[in-house]
Write a structure and sequence with these properties.
The complex is a heterodimer of chains A (about 260) and B (about 260). Chain A contains ten helices and no strands. Chain A has about 260 residues and is mainly α. Chain A has a single domain (about 50-260), classed as MetI-like (MetI-like fold, Orthogonal Bundle). Chain B is α/β, with parallel strands linked by helices. Chain B folds into two domains: about 1-80 and about 170-260, Rossmann fold, CATH 3.40.50; about 90-155, no CATH class. Chain B contains nine helices and ten strands. In chain B, a hairpin with a 2-residue loop joins strand 1 (about 5-15) and strand 2 (about 20-30). The longest helix of chain B has 21 residues, at about 240-260. The chains are: A mainly alpha (about 260), B alpha/beta (about 260). The interface between A and B is medium-sized, with 22 and 24 residues.
Chain lengths: ~260, ~260
């Protein structure tokens, strides 16, 4: 029943893969040709060998950071959705709350990281989870509220012609209507959560965490190790984003913008 | 036989409370019998859509009485006694064609087996077999509107309210949909109230054409259409069709002149 032929996944990603390899090659060539010192920018081959040497340490640190990011994402996004659902019933609450949420969303929450360290102790994971919760809560809540309320008026009129309860309008119209908005929030929050977790660690955290590791290696002029950790952080971000997109395609295949 | 719709001295005023008032409907009296196909025609702003919505209890009248199937319009809506089709198809993009048609049945708690069977029947009626698993965006505008008609008919309402359902379609598609709607109307034995601004469409479809004029919105003429059913392409080319089109056009013009 599909209208489009299913493309070969490899040929579909050929342009991206080509660009990626081209960038790596150019990077390697330029660094070698211009003799750029290692502490400014190491060549990809140097970073790769550093990664192979430090792999288990980096992985252990990455796992700690990823756990905080995932936990904060789960809590922050759930809270955002729940608050949005709760306020969808009461127009006045929503209209009072939304501008406040948008205002809070525009302040750099990461600036609170030292405060969170002070509250929970910098070695306590909660100090990082807290920042991630705050960073992911507001975009999720704002987007969900929009999705629940920006419903085509004719759909509501149709439901009115069926004389249905508000609860059924919520489950049959508002929530499905909100799903694309929620997934947009998830996509934004997937990278925000990792950024929040890593940057919060720059303000202090356990030694085996990505942020502290990157900071420490950079301070010791082991820039190849720092870069290796940054590569792992990037891969985590890409993987997280890919997971969100995969779930989105599964859950809302009807959403046209998915493709 | 009790009339399906009785409007008695219906008035509707929008605005007020500091804002300028608009008289959308003035002294509307109209009775629609079972199995009738009544079109409401008039210039934009004449209140024809508002009139349709008062019948469906989507807009309450300011004064006057609306009776549907012997009950208040409000009670009739609570009993789900009419189906509604809008200008836009208003399909739920997260539902397949089949599940869109099932929507009212789902709301009425019809068992799953039965509602799927009924939805399939309706899709057959609007000639969309084979598209059950498609999503709305995969269909053309005309096909989407047919899904909307199937959905409105799915729970077999006695009354079908249609608000310029073919307004967004091109002329040829519209004529084909007109013919199909007549076939469906005769097969399902429903009463139809149909809002349009197309004179040929109103004449081709209706048993009676209700002519309205704007500001204030009121009924200026009711023209019975005596063309025999079934109507087809030849009906559109018959001399009587053109006479009736002219009659409706002149009634519309007289309505405008009365205002001036």
């Amino acid at each position: 029943m599909t209208l489009q032929p299913v493309p070969n996944p490899l040929s579909r990603y050929t342009p991206q893969i080509t660009v990626f390899i081209a960038v790596l090659v150019a990077w390697e060539v330029i660094v070698r040709a211009l003799n750029i010192p290692r502490f400014l920018l190491p060549a990809p081959s140097v970073i790769l060998s550093a990664l192979l040497v430090t792999f288990s340490t980096v992985l252990e640190s990455a796992w700690y950071t990823l756990r905080n990011a995932l936990l904060g994402f789960a809590l922050g996004c759930s809270a955002g959705i729940l608050v949005a659902l709760a306020t969808s019933r009461w127009t006045t609450v929503r209209e009072g709350l939304l501008p406040v949420a948008i205002a809070i969303n525009s302040i750099p929450i990461i600036a609170l990281a030292p405060i969170a360290n002070n509250w929970f102790g910098s070695n306590n994971p909660m100090s990082k989870v807290m920042i991630v919760i705050l960073i992911t809560f507001f975009p999720t809540m704002i987007n969900t509220v929009r999705g629940l309320t920006l419903v085509e008026p004719a759909k509501l009129e149709l439901m009115r012609s069926y004389a249905v309860s508000e609860l059924e309008v919520l489950t049959k119209v508002r929530i499905p209507n909100a799903l694309p908005y929620v997934f947009n929030a998830f996509k934004v929050c997937s990278s925000l959560s990792l950024i929040g977790a890593i940057v919060a660690e720059y303000f202090g955290g356990p030694r085996k965490s990505l942020g502290v590791y990157i900071l420490q290696e950079a301070q010791l002029f082991r820039f190849d190790n720092a870069w290796a950790a940054i590569i792992i952080a990037s891969l985590l971000g890409i993987a997280f984003y890919a997971v969100v997109i995969t779930v989105e395609r599964r859950l809302i295949p009807w959403h046209v913008s998915v493709d | 036989m009790t009339p399906v719709v009785t409007l008695t001295n219906v008035n509707k005023v929008f605005g007020g409370g500091g804002r300028p008032q608009t008289v959308a409907l003035k002294d509307i009296n109209l009775q629609i019998e079972p199995r009738e196909f009544v079109s409401l025609i008039g210039p934009s702003g004449c209140g024809k859509s508002t009139l349709l919505r008062t019948i469906g209890d989507l807009v309450p009248p300011s004064t006057g009485e609306v009776v549907v199937n012997g009950k208040t319009a409000h009670q009739a809506r609570l009993n789900r006694e009419y189906g509604m089709v809008f200008q836009a198809p208003v399909l739920f993009e997260w539902r397949t064609v089949l599940h869109n048609v099932e929507l009212p049945l789902e709301i009425m708690r019809v068992p799953k087996k039965e509602r799927e069977q009924r939805a399939r029947e309706m899709l057959k009626l609007v000639e969309l077999q084979g598209f059950e698993r498609h999503y709305p965006w995969q269909l053309s505008g005309g096909m989407q509107q047919r899904v909307a008609i199937a959905r409105a008919l799915a729970f077999r309402p006695q009354l079908l309210l249609m608000d310029e359902p073919f307004g967004a379609l091109d002329e040829l598609t519209r004529e084909r949909m007109n013919a199909e709607l007549l076939r469906i109307w005769q097969e399902t034995q429903t009463t139809v109230v149909f809002v349009t601004h197309s004179i040929p469409e109103a004449v081709f479809l209706s048993t009676r054409v209700v002519v309205m004029s704007a500001r204030p919105g009121r009924i200026t003429a009711i023209i019975p259409i005596d063309l025999p059913y079934p109507r087809d392409v030849e009906t559109r080319e018959s001399p009587r069709f053109f006479e009736l089109v002219t009659e409706v056009r002149e009634a519309l013009r007289r309505g405008e002149e009365m205002r001036a």
